[in-house]
Specification:
Length: 251
Amino acid sequence: MLITASGALDTDGGGPRYEAVRDAIADHITTGSWRPGQRIPSERRLGEAFGVSRVTVRRALAALVEDGVLEVVPGRGCFVSIGPLSEEPNVLLSFTAMARARGLEPSAIVRDHAVRAATIDEAETLRVAPGSEVVHLERLRSLDAIPVAVDRSVIPLARCPSLATTDFATASLYDVLREGAGLVPSSAETTVEAVAAGDEIAALLELSPSWPVLVTTQTTFDQHQRPLEASRIVYRGDRYRFRARLTVARV
């Protein structure tokens, strides 16, 4: 059931017209005409192209949203789903590396980048003296230009002084640590919880304040098992999947 040259639907196979529209839209996606993260035409334009009512188009889009093929961004329209970003079990990767491994283009808007004194809690986590200089970095992270996470990191400045002057709109934090200071993020202790987004995060991630988000709080260690980074990342719940490998404890 595809779009013919005249723009009408081929419904020779029978069935509801919305299913024909659904399959035609899905065909555009599977053939690459519409790429992940791309906004698709409006209901009105799709209705005109397929020769059907907006009600029929709306029903077809709802079915594709339910299937995870499309996603609705309030106030912006309907987009081809990029699918949830998924961490491989027991593998520590930067956001940039994780995205590119899946064929996605990462980008960032730096919301805060400053050198300041460590708080007592940060000093305890990072094993530095209270008041020591740390780099505070907060970024809005996107995949194929679609907001996915708000990422906050705190790193002792003494571990890698070049962090203070790096442009993190394009640079990967883990790459800078490796190349600038020979520090390799090697392991991490992580907790994950689900909370309501709230007004500020909702505005950044383009969702409703009551929608759930996933919050990961993590301490990352270098190859010498010294604390390297304390981070808190807030992910859209529909764009991030946490995976873990569990084993039975030996007794």
